[in-house]
Each structure stands twice: as C-alpha cells, then as structure tokens.
Amino acid sequence: MKFEDLLLETGGFGRFQILILVILCLPRINLPMHFLLHNFLAATPSHHCAIPHQEAFVNLTAEEVLLVSIPREPDGTFRSCEMFSEPQFHLLLNSSLQSDNKSIIQRCQHGWVYDHSQLTSTISTQWDLVCEQRGLNQATATFFFIGVTMGAVVFGYLSDRFGRKTMLLLSLVCSAVFGMLSAASISYTMLAITRTLTGVALSGVSLIVLPLAMEWVDIQHRTFTGILSSIFWSIGNMLLALVAYLVREWHWLLVAVTGPCLLNIVCLWWVPESARWLIAKGKVKQAHRHLLRCARMNRRKDFAVSPEDLTRMAMDKKPEGSYFYTSLFRTPVLRKISLCTGVVWFGVSFSYYGMSMNLTGFGLNIYLSQFVFGVIEIPAKMITYVMVNRIGRRQSQAWTLILTGLCIGANIVIPKPFTALRSVVAVMAKGFSEAAFTTVYLYTSELYPTILRQNGMGYTSFMARLGGSLAPLVFLLDEVWRSLPEVTYCSVAVCSGTVAFLLPETLNVCLPEDIEDIE
C-alpha cells in the first residue's frame, strides 16, 4: 500500500487538507515582505553633498546655493558624490559655464543631504551608505541571503531528522526574535548580523511550508497546492508595497513585516506533522492518530486502516541507516537530478531577484512599481497552472527560464527612448521569471523521495539563495559596463533553462518514497 492509497481512504482532498493549506499559506504571505524588504529598507533617495557655511549664502535661494556649490551632470542634474572646493559664484551669471577643471571638484566632505519626500528614513540615510559606501548598502541584501543559504542547509537536514512541524515552529520563533532585534539595531554591524540570522530562520519557513502541505494532498491536487501557495507569495509582494507606503521609517517597517510571524506561530497549533514522514520514520501511532483525525474531518467514518497496517507499510519502506546531503549524490539517477536541480534553482533565483530588486524600470515610484510587480505574478501563476498540467513540469521549467533570459536580453538591445516597449518586455520577463519560480517549487518537491525530500529541498534552496546572494551585487558591475548586469542575468537564465531539459518528468506520477523508487 502506498501513502496515496491511504489518502484516498481518508477522503482524498477534503476539509482537513483545506484547513492545512490555508494555515500554511499564511507564512508564505510573510516571506516576500522580508525577502524583498531590501527595496525599501536600503532604498537610496536622491542626495547631494552637504554644503558648509550656509551663512555665506544668506542672499541666495536654495537653488542658487546648489548651483554654486555642486557640479552638474551633462543632463543638468546635480551630482550626488561631488562638490566644488570653493563656491563658483560666476555660475550665477551663466549656469551653462560648467568648468572642466577637476582640481576645483572634490568628494563630499561634510556628509550628505537627502530628499525625504518619499522615504523618511532608510539605512542608507541613517549611516550614509552612498557613494564610496554604496557597496555596503547592496551588501545588506547579500548578508540576508547568505543567512537564507545557511538556513537551507540546516533546516533541510533537521526537518528530515526531527520532523517538518517542529522545525517550522522553531524557524517561526527565531524569525520573530531576530526580526525584532533587527528593528532595534543601533549600528550597521548589528543590522548586518541580525538580518543574516533572520535569513537563517526564514529559510526554514520557506523550505518546509510547501513540502509539508504537499505531503498531505493527493496526486490530483499537488499542482493546485503548489500554485495556491505561490499565489500567497504574490499577495505578500503586493502587501509589502502597501506596508512600506504606510510605514516610511525603517525601524518600524521591520517591526511591521516581522509581526505576522507571531500570528503564524499561533495558527501552527492546528497543523499536524506529516503522516508520510512519520510512517517513513516508523512512528506509526502518531501517523495513525493524524490520519484518523483527517478521515473524521473529511467525514469518512469507514476509515479502517489500523496501526498494524501502517507498521507493515513502514517495514516495507524501512530506510537503511540515516541520510545526509551526501546521499543525494550516491546513486546515478539521484546524482543527475541533484546536479541539474541545483543549476536550475540557482538560475531561477538569480534572475528573479535580479529583476525584483530593480524597481526603476517602469518610470513609477518604488511603491507602485513593487505593487505592479506583485500584480504581474498572479496571471503568470494562472498560466503556470495550465502549463504544468498540459505540457508537463520539465517543459514548463525549461521554457519559462529561457524566455526570462531572452526578455532580459531583448531590453539590452532595445533603445532607451522606446520606454513603452521596454516596459512591456520587462513585464513579460517578470512574468516568465515568476512562472519559473512557481514551477521549480512544485517540480522539485516531486523529484525527491520522502526520506530525502527535505534534504533535497535544503540543497536546492542553498543553491537558490546562493543565486539570491549574488544577484544584488551584480548591480555594481554597471561601473564596468552599463549593460553587464543585464547580460549576466540573461546568460544565467538561458543556460539554467537548458539544463532543465535533462530532468525527468513528474506529471501524474506518485511521489517517490525511497531511493529505490527513484532509481
């Protein structure tokens, strides 16, 4: 007897599964609020050098003070990181006479003045993470994703060893604690450390929620479960724009996006441990209790499976020894799957966060851009739901990634003046990227056997967060060549999409229970 047969005995997909899905989708809303928080936490408003000795300009307007103190770019805007060593009063007579003499231009000496019309306070304005310190600003996102990367390894192993629900509860508690400590940061170093630890904790939430839900649903509803969970991510994406718009001060913004973790901790009380995992580990009494509760909620009074039946089932699938990440590479088919999924996850995450952390492509303010990015994802997920059931997981994964890369590449060659066309292509790229991310979560959870599923998800999540860690740093390559970041995102997406063709198809296939099922 397979676990899918047990699910049919308990009513298949009923009220019990719906309750679990609703509760487990709540943490998914909270995830993008942290994963994309860098867009607002570290946003850099327009700024210029602070001008000393303002009393010397008592008869000048604010615009005239800037004119004689700050050099201008060719497009007429004031430079952000340079100032005149001495006031250039002759520019009041003819502002077009910009001097080419670099000896009178120097870096900012007295700090910066920021435009607070949109952003009251960010870490950029708090600790002057601009100009020469711009790398530290981008590094805050990298620190967070390094934490997520480490958490993927830790929670992937622990949830296979000690259970899905236990580790999910631990990760939610740690997320709430470290999130609040981040909000109380009094230095950049403290923020970097606490954001890294928040990333470690949230990685457990990201890693466990979907597999735990998938292990309680039948084959026919696996795709629905994956897409529904992903839609709640998009809802969180849109809610982040609303929360950031209402809370403009970075300390309180961190409090606002961390608070929902407390609600998730309370709601987790009604979620049972994975019966599939319990049986695989030989804990048949607990598994039988949860299955009995499932049958009762689904109004199946004829549920006749006994603990002895589950014991025989567990003995048939008794794993030999313990498993760790090295187990993913010991057998030929599993080794091929692990290598390919690692590349695919890296490409999906790298291209997704590369676009999601660039909110200036629409010509809108950052709040509206963030909201639009969230809205775009909904139809992408609806199309994904149809695609993965019609053409399969493998084709969907490969082509969504390849098309993401091609759209990014197209915007490299489309001239800047064609803003409408560039915006349409950017929207298409974001849609394909989200479709690739939606597919990869569903696809990967179906590729690995139950005894190694969380190890597999932990390994692939590690690769994804490695891509997420590098994505924000790639923006700094624009100092080498303006289009180099886009070329990098394009190349990685196309190459990883091509690798996806090497994976096996899982459409309408039972979830594998052990390594023998894979081989």
Automatic annotation (TrEMBL):
Tree of life domain:
Eukaryota
Annotated keywords:
Cell membrane, Ion transport, Membrane, Transmembrane, Transmembrane helix, Transport
Species of origin reads Grallaria varia (variegated antpitta)
Q: Where are the transmembrane segments?
A: 12-31, 139-158, 170-191, 197-217, 224-246, 252-271, 337-355, 367-386, 398-414
Q: From the Swiss-Prot or TrEMBL record, state where the protein is found.
A: Apical cell membrane; Basolateral cell membrane
Cross-referenced InterPro entries: MFS, MFS_dom, MFS_trans_sf
Q: Give the protein family.
A: Belongs to the major facilitator (TC 2.A.1) superfamily. Organic cation transporter (TC 2.A.1.19) family.
Name the record gives this protein: Solute carrier family 22 member 7
GO function terms (MF aspect): organic anion transmembrane transporter activity; prostaglandin transmembrane transporter activity
Q: Name one Pfam family in it.
A: MFS_1
Task: List the GO biological process terms.
Answer: monoatomic ion transport
Keyword check for Membrane: yes
Q: Which PROSITE patterns match?
A: MFS
Q: Which residues form the Major facilitator superfamily (MFS) profile domain?
A: 87-507
| Catalytic activity line of the entry | creatinine(in) = creatinine(out); glutarate(in) = glutarate(out); urate(out) = urate(in); 3',5'-cyclic GMP(in) = 3',5'-cyclic GMP(out)
What SUPFAM superfamilies does the record point to?
MFS general substrate transporter
